[in-house]
C-alpha cells in the first residue's frame, strides 16, 4: 500500500475544527506526535463556524491544505431531547459552511467526523457501513443523527460533482482525555470512573450500577481514533464513510469491574436489576478499516489506566 | 408529543398579514401566490433570486430583520429531474440545505408566526408501502437517483420539527405528490412525464405526424395533483394544521401511464396513433401517496385530471409554444 501525500507533507497547513473537544484535541496531539508543524486552530470565540461569512473569510485568508472537521454540537440523551433545534440546526450550519468553503478555497482533502448514532436503531450487529439509512433512527438522537448523515452525504456529493477529496469517519463509543465526566450527563465509562473514584475517596461500602450488566458495548480510546484519522487522511479517498472502532466488545459488567480495578475501589459492586439495560448490543463492523491496514493499539485496561491518571491530574486536582 | 390539529379558529384570518413566499416564480411558488391573491391576501413579500439569494445567511438575516413577515411559505429550492440530480449532487444537497437552514432559522429568530416547508414525495424510501403513509419516512433506503435532494428535504422536515419541540414554534411541512400545471417545465429533455407527453402530442399534431411512441407498456400507476390544488392545500394547512408530523398532499387519483397518455392525446387533439415501445423500461410499478391524513383534516382536491390537463394545455399554448 503506497503512502498518500498527507504523511509526506508535514508542513502543510492543517485546520482542525473543534480542536478543544474530546476528538479534536486528540487529533491535535496525534498530529503533533507525528511531526506536523503547521496546525491552524480557532476557538469558538475566534471563529464561529455557524457564521457563513466568517467561515468564508477564514478559508480565503488562511487557505488550509487539509481540514479535519471535528467541531460539532454534541451531548447526551437529555441534551438532544431538550435542544433538538440546536442539535440539528447548528450542526447543519457548521457542516454546510465548512464543507462548501473548504471546497471553494482549494482545500486538498477534508475529513468529516460523525458517530455511530447515524445508524438505524435496529441495525444488524456488528453494524456495517451499508446499514446507513436502511431503517428508523433512535428517536432520542435523531436530530444529531440526521445532521451527521447529511454531512456524510454532502461529502459524497462534492466528491461526485467536483471530484473533490472528502471522506467521512464514524467512530464508535470513545473515551480518554478531555472527556466529559459530569455527574449528570456523561456517558457510561466516564460516569463509572467518576463514581468509583468518589466512592474510594469517600470510603463508601458499595457502588450500585443500573441494569444487569449484560449489555455488550465497544469502546475505543480517543488516541486510537486520532491515529485512525491520520491513517485515513493518508490512505483513504473512497466514497463510502468508514467505521472506526476497536472491535473489542465488553459487557457493562466487565467494564465496571475493570474500571473498579483501575481506580482501586475496594468496596462492593452491586447491580440494580430493576433498572433498564438499554440496547443489548452495539458494535461497529470495522472490517473495512481493518482491510485498509489499520488496527487499534490501546487495550481497554491500558486506556482506562491512562484516562484515570488524566482524570486525577485534571479533574480532581483542579477542583481542589 | 401532543399535536395541535384542526383548530376551529382560523389563523389566517388577517388578510393583510405580511406573507413571504420564497420561490414565488417556480411551479409551486407561483401557484401559491395566485391562490393567496385569489383568497384576498394583500400583503405578499416576494423576492427574485437576484434580489435575495437565500443561500446567503447574512442577506437572509437582513431581509427578515427588515421585512418581519408574519407567515413564510418556503417553496424555494434547487429542483430538477434524474439527470440534473446525478450531474449536480453537491448543488442539490448543498444549496437546499443552505436555503433551508438560513430561512428556517431567521424566520424563527425574527418572530415569524408560522412557516410552511415544502418538499416532495421523493423523501420516501424507494420500496415504501403503496399508498405511502407519512410514517414511511426514514424506514428504508432512498431512491439513489434523487437521494441528494431527498436528504436535504428530510433534514428540512426534521429542522421544522426540532424548532417546534425546542421553541414551541409553529413550523409545518407539506409533501406534495407529482404536480402539473402552469409554469411547469416543458423542456424536451428534462421535463417530467405529464408535460413531456403534452409537448410531444402537441408537436405531433402541429407537424401532422402519424404516431407518437411512448416508452414502456403504459401499465405503471401514477398519481397527479394540479398545482392549484396544491396551493389550495397549502393555504388550508397554514390555516388549520399545527402538527409535528409532515403532511402528504396528494389527489388520491391514480391513473395508468396509458390512461394518462390517452387523456393528454385527447385534450391536445392529436388524431394520429399512440404506440408503445415495450422494449423500454416502465419504471416503478406504482407510486401513490396516502393522503388520508390531509383528508381527515377536511381537505379534498377540486381539479379533475381532465380539467387540469385542459387548463394546462391552454396555458401551454399561450405561454410556451407561441414563443
Name its key features.
four-stranded mixed sheet; GDP-L-fucose synthase activity (chain B); globular; 12 strands; 10 helices; isomerase (chain B); homodimer; Rossmann fold; alpha/beta; 320 residues
Describe the structure.
Chain A has 320 residues and is an alpha/beta fold. Chain A has a domain at 6-180 and 219-247 and 282-298: Rossmann fold, CATH 3.40.50.720. In chain A, 43% of the residues lie in helices and 15% in strands. Chain A contains ten helices and twelve strands. Chain A has helices at residues 22-33, 52-62, 77-82, 84-104, 142-162, 188-201, 222-235, 252-263, 287-292, 300-319; strands at residues 14-17, 39-40, 66-69, 109-113, 165-171, 173-175, 206-210, 216-221, 242-244, 249-251, 268-272, 281-282. Chain A has a six-stranded parallel sheet, sandwiched between helices. In chain A, strands 6, 8, 10 and 12 form a four-stranded mixed sheet that branches. In chain A, helix 1 (22-33) links the parallel strand 1 (14-17) and strand 2. The longest helix of chain A is centred in the first third of the chain and has 21 residues, at 84-104. In chain A, 47% of the residues are buried. The mean pLDDT of chain A is 94. At the A-B interface, helix 4 and helix 5 of A face helix 4 and helix 5 of B.
Global morphology of chain A:
globular
Termini Cα gap of chain A? 51 Å
Computed CA radius of gyration of chain A, to the nearest angstrom: 20 Å
Helix content of chain A: 40-55%
Number of helices of chain A: 10
Beta strands of chain A, count = 12
Amino acid at each position: 500500500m503506497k503512502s498518500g501525500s498527507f504523511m509526506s507533507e508535514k508542513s502543510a497547513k492543517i485546520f482542525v475544527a473543534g480542536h478543544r473537544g474530546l476528538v479534536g484535541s486528540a487529533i491535535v496531539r496525534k498530529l503533533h506526535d507525528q511531526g506536523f508543524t503547521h496546525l491552524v486552530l480557532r476557538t469558538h470565540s475566534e471563529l464561529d463556524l455557524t457564521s457563513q461569512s466568517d467561515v468564508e473569510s477564514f478559508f480565503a485568508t488562511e487557505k488550509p491544505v487539509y481540514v479535519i472537521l471535528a467541531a460539532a454540537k454534541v451531548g447526551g440523551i437529555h441534551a438532544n431531547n431538550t435542544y433538538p433545534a440546536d442539535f440539528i440546526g447548528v450542526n447543519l450550519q457548521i457542516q454546510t459552511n465548512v464543507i462548501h468553503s473548504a471546497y471553494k478555497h482549494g482545500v486538498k482533502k477534508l475529513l468529516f467526523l460523525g458517530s455511530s448514532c447515524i445508524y438505524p436503531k435496529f441495525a444488524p450487529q456488528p453494524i456495517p457501513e451499508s446499514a446507513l439509512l436502511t431503517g428508523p433512527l433512535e428517536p432520542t438522537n435523531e436530530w444529531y443523527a440526521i445532521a451527521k448523515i447529511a454531512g456524510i452525504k454532502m461529502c459524497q456529493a462534492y466528491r461526485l460533482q467536483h471530484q473533490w477529496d472528502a471522506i467521512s469517519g464514524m467512530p464508535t463509543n470513545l473515551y480518554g482525555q478531555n472527556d466529559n465526566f459530569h455527574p449528570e450527563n456523561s456517558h457510561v465509562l466516564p460516569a463509572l470512573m467518576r463514581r468509583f473514584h468518589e466512592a474510594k475517596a469517600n470510603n463508601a461500602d458499595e457502588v450500585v450500577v443500573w441494569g444487569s450488566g449484560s449489555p455488550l458495548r465497544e469502546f475505543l480510546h480517543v488516541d486510537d481514533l486520532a491515529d485512525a484519522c491520520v491513517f485515513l487522511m493518508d490512505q483513504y479517498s473512497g466514497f463510502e464513510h468508514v467505521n472506526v472502532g476497536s472491535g473489542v466488545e465488553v459487557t457493562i459488567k466487565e467494564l465496571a469491574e475493570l474500571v473498579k480495578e483501575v481506580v482501586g475501589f475496594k468496596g462492593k459492586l452491586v447491580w440494580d436489576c430493576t433498572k433498564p439495560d438499554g440496547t443489548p448490543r452495539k458494535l461497529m463492523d470495522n472490517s473495512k478499516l481493518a482491510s485498509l491496514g489499520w488496527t487499534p493499539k490501546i487495550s481497554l485496561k491500558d486506556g482506562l489506566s491512562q484516562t484515570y491518571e488524566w482524570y486525577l491530574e485534571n479533574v480532581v486536582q483542579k477542583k481542589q
